[in-house]
Design brief:
five-stranded antiparallel β-sheet; 741 residues; globular; alpha+beta
Length: 741
């Protein structure tokens, strides 16, 4: 059995493994706080202490919650800490905040009162959150450090002060609790049982019932009458509560066990029904605090009844709890984006890879492969060989790409699918590749093997390598396309353990190669292919033109990134490359002078490409021909604060799916009329070139690449992600819902 066939059987076995029960990742516990935010120190430089946090993937640290103080102010005087700038976010509850991902370093100047002192004692407090399921924030953690002055030191982190919460329990799933251990937090509905009663025609009675050790904040409770107009909620008649000092909220009042709250209704004499919104927040004593919970009370004053339901922009009843009285992490994934399981991710990856075959960015490579398959039509063995080697190339390319991406992310650096198309050098190389493949298909030169597929052993080996690298090329040019079903699977791979991520990328490769595997191994399908003949040479030459068109498209993308000078350089380099390949095709006799001339031309083409790599991005003037507003976090925060619904569109010129959505929906008159009718602002971010701000937005919504569409509602609340492939009906429904008061 050949090595390639064994590799494919192994891949098939891995696919069967996907049918086993899903990995119990939801049961994995969160990291202890000192592992999620690993702190080390360096006091080797007198007068300065360096603090370094290594933040685990999927966690972030609040810049404003870092506090550094001397344990003994009489012994040491601290200067102002120097903290790096963080990623700016607008939090619904905290306002404008800055957060950190990856590695950060702060410096703190100090002066010893006793110049002969050999140690410095510091109290370092910090707070951070887990931004994917289960989405929680840790309580403020304080580390008490004693550092040797003038000597480097590393702080071994101890166990977290608060036991890590189990993800399943935080999401409301039943969890086994060992005897003698502390029970997991209850779901919000059970921790704060809420009821509403009609006390009389002019007032309501709201009631919360909490289990032991749970409490409700008085100051975090709000009551508002939504309808009808002219009716409002008066000042609630709060009973006496328990005084509580909160580190962030200061002195406040809380309620344990049960609290009943009479709420007068002003202007309700002639009303028959009411809609009342109630929001509240509470905590588990010495434990977690829950996000703000919102409920809608529908009141029938004539019948004297009231019913409670989730509000129109609710926090989920079983929403993940937060550790410490801190609002939900900014930029959490929308409720509609439920995390996929392992089996579902494998299935979506396989389906996404299959759909990639239909994407325009893969079409030129499919054209090249179609000729190869037709050439092997007279031999089933040849067809199987072509299919196997092509599949091997696809699988190896996806495996390498997956390992690179997951490895970079595991090191704490962000990377998104298709990001290589932001690099002018990568774009230029692909222009040359497409040009070279097209010239070969046009007959300017040959890359080994004969058209009929029959030749010597050397030609056979060339054919196998050609099939293999055709598969590699298919993966390279497929990466700007985020196919339907593919985004969720890749997002799961980015967050999953290395082995699981590897299997998902292999499933993507199997999906991409599946049509050719079927043609190669199912004779009935292979017989449907036309018989080979002289007409194939004409077809082969005709299929070179999609390659040239792809080179033109890539050149247009490069112009967007580096301007007309870059396009001219690549065109000049392309001419030199074409001349080198033409001369190579004419001088196969092997004369030294011919090889030198070919090499000089190839070096000239490479030099032109390297010059493009050093060009700066052009200074562009922002236009709004499509009615869009350029994306910026500040502008988005301003619009949301003003109560304006917003559609954010993250796109790129190299993204085929983005362009298809623009043509089908976003550039139409119907869409612009919809924006006007709903009062929605259309905000667009261009990720054609490297842009850290847009990359942070993609990371915030756990998007593996572009396109990304997020709709923000008029009344505030979390943004909702739309599908990767848009339809007008989907966009219309989302914008009309966002525009409702």
């Amino acid at each position: 059995m050949s090595v390639v066939r064994r590799a494919l059987l192994l891949a098939a076995g891995l696919g069967l493994f996907a049918t086993l029960p899903a990995l119990a990742q939801d049961e994995q516990e969160l990291l202890p706080v000192t592992q999620a935010f690993h702190l080390t120190t360096d006091a080797s430089q007198p007068g300065t202490v360096k603090l370094h946090w290594r933040i685990a993937p999927d966690y972030y640290l609040y810049r404003g919650r870092i506090k550094i103080a001397a344990a003994d102010p009489a012994a040491v005087k601290l200067g102002e800490p120097n903290l790096p700038a963080g990623l700016k976010e607008h939090d619904e509850y905290l306002g404008d905040v800055e957060i950190y991902h990856g590695d950060i370093e702060a410096t703190v100047p100090y002066t010893l009162v006793d110049a002969g002192a050999r140690t410095i004692a510091l109290n370092v407090q910090y707070q951070g959150c887990h931004e994917v399921e289960p989405k929680i924030c840790y309580p403020p953690n304080t580390e008490h450090l004693t550092l040797a002055v003038g000597a480097p030191s590393t702080i071994p982190t101890a166990a977290a002060a608060t036991p890590p919460a189990n993800a399943a329990a935080l999401l409301g799933a039943p969890t086994a609790v060992a005897q003698g251990s502390e029970a997991q937090p209850l779901p919000a509905e059970q921790a704060f049982r809420f009821e509403a009663l009609v006390k009389d025609h002019g007032s309501l009675l709201l009631r919360w019932t909490m289990p032991k050790d749970y409490y409700l904040y008085r100051d975090k409770t709000q009551v508002a009458v939504v309808s009808p107009a002219g009716v409002s909620a008066g000042e609630p008649d709060w009973p006496s509560g328990t005084a509580h000092h909160d580190e962030h909220f200061g002195d406040t009042i809380v309620y344990f066990d049960q609290v009943e709250l009479p709420v007068p209704l002003e202007g309700a004499a002639n009303a028959t029904s009411l809609a009342v919104d109630v929001s509240y927040q509470g905590c588990l004593e010495n434990g977690i605090c829950y996000p703000v919970m919102k409920r809608r009370v529908n009141v029938d004053l004539a019948a004297g009844t009231a019913s409670v339901s989730a509000s129109e922009t609710p926090q989920s009843a079983a929403a993940p709890a937060e550790v410490a009285p801190t609002p939900p992490p900014p930029g959490v994934a929308p409720a509609g984006d439920a995390p996929v399981g392992f089996i579902a991710a494998i299935g979506l990856a396989l389906l996404g890879g299959l759909v990639l075959n239909l994407m325009p960015c893969v079409l030129p490579v499919l054209s090249l492969k179609a000729v190869t398959v037709l050439e092997s039509g007279e031999s089933h063995a040849a067809a199987r060989r072509h299919a196997l080697w092509y599949t091997a190339g696809v699988l190896v390319a996806f495996a390498v790409l997956g390992l690179i991406i997951v490895g970079i992310r595991a090191a704490g650096h962000g990377i998104q699918w298709g990001a290589q198309f932001q690099q002018p050098l990568a774009i230029g190389v692909l222009v040359y590749v497409m040009l070279a493949v097209g010239l070969s298909m046009s007959g300017v030169f040959e890359i080994g093997g004969s058209l009929g597929g029959v030749g010597s052993g050397l030609a056979a080996r060339s054919g196998r390598s050609g099939d293999f690298f055709t598969g590699v090329l298919a993966v390279v040019v497929a990466s700007p396309c985020t196919a339907p079903f593919m985004g969720s699977a890749i997002a799961f791979a980015f967050a999953a353990p290395l082995t699981v991520a590897f299997l998902i990328f292999l499933a993507l490769g199997l999906g991409l190669a599946l049509p050719f595997l079927v043609i190669g191994f199912v004779p009935a399908v292979a017989r449907l292919l036309p018989r080979p003949g002289r007409w194939m040479e004409t077809l082969k030459q005709a299929l070179a033109f999609p390659m040239y068109l792809t080179a033109v498209w890539l050149l247009w993308v490069l112009t967007k990134q580096r301007g007309a000078d870059a396009a001219a350089l690549v065109l000049a380099g392309g001419v030199l490359l074409a001349m080198a390949l033409w001369w190579y095709g004419r001088s196969r006799g092997g004369r030294v002078l011919s090889w030198v001339f070919t090499g000089v031309l190839a070096i000239g083409a490479a030099a032109a490409l390297w010059t493009v790599h050093g060009l700066p991005a052009p200074q562009t003037v922002t236009t709004a021909a499509d009615g869009s507003v350029p994306y910026s976090p500040e502008k988005l925060a301003e619009l949301r604060a003003a109560g304006t619904p917003v559609l954010v569109d993250m796109t790129a010129d190299w993204c085929i799916t983005c362009k298809a959505n623009e043509h089908a929906v976003l550039d139409t008159d119907a869409f612009h009329a919809l924006l006007k009718r709903t009062g929605t602002v259309y905000m667009k971010g261009d990720w054609t070139d490297v842009n850290a701000t847009i990359a942070a937005f993609l990371e915030q919504y756990h998007s593996v690449g572009v396109p990304l569409y997020v709709v923000y509602p008029k009344g505030g609340g979390e943004g909702t992600k739309l599908s990767t492939v848009l339809t007008y009906d989907t966009v219309e429904k989302a914008l009309e819902a966002a525009a409702r008061p």
